[in-house]
Design a protein that fits this description.
Helix content is 39%, strand content 26%. A hairpin with a 2-residue loop joins strand 9 and strand 10. It has ten helices and ten strands. The protein has a six-stranded mixed sheet with strand order 6-7-8-3-9-10, sandwiched between helices. Strands 2-1-4-5 form a four-stranded antiparallel sheet, with helices on one face. Bound molecules: adenosine-5'-diphosphate and magnesium ion. Adenosine-5'-diphosphate binds next to helix 1.
Length: 254
């Protein structure tokens, strides 16, 4: 069953069609990758899914707990609350706070507290439970050993993994990552994507990943969509899409 379906979405900027009738199905429990050259409409699609842009035509449907929600045109905070989390929607990482405190701040912020009081507040029983949950998440992602390390001492890859942990802490059902390994050195980039796979397997969280560096990303995903000029030009397994003549033409031509 699809967790999210995008039906014939059109998004224009003036007369320019950034999305020209895009259909995408994201299967629950899988990792779906969208590739495409710069300017092909990938981020615009994410912006339509997460409510930043309202499409001129088409629909976005989200399914959870046997219910169907037409989320087209919903405001971003409502889409976040229903379980679709784009990592940058979560408040920024606090550089001076520890890894654990950064996770706690997400949960506290979600309970509607101001971010400052959320950070400074002393611990209660309920928060000890939250800390326990945070620790479980940190174990899954391999950051438990660094729970008391301030965020500014983490590597680029560890920061990405901390962002993923915070999405889990926020209760994400579908996590959307727009170029999660941009600017991350190659060895750490593999670590980030391995963590995505691990979270997917252990927590059952569904992922939509947008990525430019397809040579790295293809090893870790289940389904691939290729976009060009605001349209989907191919869909299939990584092997199928990598050998698709239309995709090869776009990538060699760009
Ligand atoms: N807010 C905007 N106003 C005008 N044009 C935009 C805007 N956002 C994106 N575009 C254009 O839409 C096209 C797709 O952009 P984008 O979705 O960011 O591509 P990608 O993420 O695949 O690199 C590009 O030509 C871009 O210049
Ligand atoms: Mg982009």
């Amino acid at each position: 069953m699809d967790i999210l379906t995008v039906y014939s979405v059109v998004k224009q900027f003036g007369a320019f069609r950034a999305l020209d009738g895009v259909d995408v199905s994201i299967e629950r429990g899988k990792i779906t990758l969208i590739i495409g050259p710069n300017g092909s409409g990938k981020t615009t699609l994410v912006n339509v899914i997460t409510g930043v842009y309202k499409p001129e035509a088409g629909r976005v449907v989200y399914r959870r707990d046997g219910r169907e929600f037409d989320i087209t045109g919903w405001p971003p905070h409502k889409i976040f609350e229903i379980g679709i989390v784009r990592t940058f929607q979560i408040p920024q990482i606090f550089q001076k706070l520890t890894v654990l405190e950064n996770l706690m701040a997400v949960a506290r912020g979600q309970r509607g507290e101001g971010i400052i009081s959320a950070v400074l507040k002393t611990w209660t029983r309920q928060e000890e439970e939250l800390a326990e949950r945070a620790f479980q998440i940190l174990k899954t992602v391999g950051l438990a050993g660094k729970w008391d390390v301030p965020a500014y001492l983490l590597s680029a890859g560890e920061i990405k993994i901390l962002e993923l942990s915070r999405a889990l802490m926020a209760g994400a059902d579908l996590v959307i990552l727009d170029e999660p390994i941009a600017g991350v050195p190659i060895d750490q980039a593999h670590g980030v994507l391995k963590t995505v796979v691990d979270i997917n397997k252990r927590h059952g969280v569904t992922f939509l990943v947008i990525e430019h560096r397809i040579d790295i990303a293809f090893n870790y995903v289940d389904v691939v969509y290729a976009m060009a000029s605001g349209r989907v030009i191919a869909r299939g397994t990584p092997e199928q899409v990598a050998s698709d003549p239309k995709v090869r033409e776009v990538y060699i031509g760009s």
